[in-house]
Amino acid sequence: MAEIVEISGDDIVESVRAALQYISYYHTPDYLSHLAAAYDREQSASAKAAIGQILESSRLAATGQRPMCQDTGIVTVFARLGQSCVIKSDRSLADLINEGTRLAYLDAGNPLRASMVDDPIYERKNTRDNTPAITHIDVGLGNTLEILVAAKGGGSENKARFGNLNPSTSVADWVVETVETLGAGWCPPGVIGVGVGGTAEKAMLMAKRACMGEIDMSGLLARGPASKIEELRIELYERINNLGIGAQGLGGLTTVVDVKIATYPTHVASKPVAIMPQCAANRHARITLDGSGPAFLDPPNLQAWPVVEGSGGAGRFRRVNVDALTAEEMASWKTGETLLLSGRILTGRDAAHKRIADILARGESLPVDLKGRIIYYVGPVDPVGDEAVGPAGPTTSTRMDKFTDMMLDQGIVSMIGKAERGPQTVADIARHKATYLIAVGGAAVLVSKAIRSSRLVAFEDLGMEAIREFEVEDMPVAVDASGTSIHVTGPQMWKGKAVPVLA
User: Fold this and answer.
1) In a 3-state reduction of DSSP, which class is residue 209?
2) Domains, the chain, ranges and CATH?
3) Are 299 and 63 within 8 A, CB to CB?
4) Which of 105, 101, 89, 92 is nearest to 133 (CA)?
């Protein structure tokens, strides 16, 4: 029997706090190396530019210790408590983890964005400190407390999928067909975790934990598979990349840098399968407490971050003064073209759009004139020091599709977000002779460097979802939908081209 070890509750709080701060600004070395390799081999100009922006933004986040993504995530914790551990505290382990989360997200030097709302059905009121965490506790042999802490963004979390397949159905076919339907809202290139077996909830948990495993696909490809599971990993890796989705859904050779698989025995009549996408932020870390004090992670060597030249755009770009934008100028933009925006743009996302709809339904006047304006779908991190705004990357645009025609009727001429729009929304944009522009998800720090000032315009009570006016200078975006979408044409162009390149 292992020696009984006492672990202080305060040490658990401090360890979780420090780990959440750490993963907010440091990419894992395994992901960095695989992403840099994907950048080197990428042949799609648009996808290469997107990967370059992610790498450059990651370097800025690491050196400045600011969040790599404005969506600092929903905290998920897998804790394994040794049976020979005693936690010295009058609070439960889950409550201690929540306290660590609260302190991490309210850190004055690096505040993280509060994204949790309660209650989830009706009021959806922000908890203001990102608590509670989603905590899973397992008890086993030993006298240590192992904690796997992660921060999962809403874009990738929303793309989790589950299917209860017939026992004879191909897991590989279902996974590939399902990934093809996810679009780009999960911010590829990333990792796909697959859980097979158990029950519905077991498969989902396995998939989530699997996508946080060590990225070792390059080594696996070099040595070759040693089991059927490794054969399946390689098959899925090649087939998913062969879909041509590419970085940010722009079309390219790399959609995933790895595929991880976990299995568990299941009922004879069942084959539950879950997939869990892990976005380009890939935030997770493992810490172990042994009773000797808080557990801290060593800072990585900043030389691991590649310096990417010319990551602001692919090839030629066009500078645009949004304060003097005309319909004729917008009509000359080409799908896939890189623009550098300067001038004043509005911000707004889910809650602001819903409030605008409610105001219009009551026949009241809006607190801001939308005529001739560009709106950026963003919920930024709070600024520190001399920052105009904290990291401010785009949110998934499809959530605003239901409001787009209304916003266009109010005079909005262009929208900036990430990932594809629905077919009806693309048609509405074309009918209004408007445009949809894309900023790179995962490049939040890089985007924030282009924001010179920020002022509150409306809905202050919505916190990060309030409407603000940004003054930007050379903000990099790409033209997506004005009737033709690069999220359709890009993957079509690159479908089937990945395997020969990787081989």
Assistant:
1) helix
2) 154-280 (no CATH), 317-490 (3.20.130.10)
3) no
4) 101
Contact by Cβ (8 Å): 373, 411: yes
Helix axes 9-25, 93-105, angle to 10 degrees: 40
What are the pLDDT digits (tens) for 489-501? 778 788 887 765 4
Give the least confident one: 15-29, 189-203, 433-447.
Answer: 433-447
Contact 38, 254 (CB under 8 A): yes
Q: Which pLDDT value is given to residue 482?
A: 61
396 phi/psi in degrees, rounded to 5:
-65, 125
Task: Please measure the distance between the N-terminal and C-terminal CA atoms of the chain and give it in whole angstroms.
Answer: 50
Question: Burial letters for 271-292: b for 16+ Cβ neighbours within 10 Å, e otherwise?
Answer: bbbbbbbbbbbbbbbebebbbe
Q: Please tell me the number of Cα atoms within 13 Å of 109 on its side-chain side.
A: 8
Element (H, E) at 176: helix 171-180
Please provide the size of the chain in residues.
Answer: 503
Could you write out the three-class secondary structure of 27-68? CCHHHHHHHHHHHHHCCCHHHHHHHHHHHHHHHHHHHHCCCC
DSSP for residue 288? E
pLDDT digits (tens, 9 = 90+) for 34-62: 999 999 999 999 899 999 999 999 999 99
- Residue whose token pair is 């819903």: 354
At 274, which amino acid appears? A
* Range list of H helices, 377-420: 401-409
Q: Which residues contact 223 (CB under 8 A, 6 or more apart)?
A: none
**Paired tokens of 107:** 């850190």
Summarised one tens digit per residue, pLDDT across range 355-391 is 999 999 999 999 999 999 999 999 999 999 999 999 9
DSSP 87-117: EESSS-HHHHHHHHHHHHHT-SSS------E
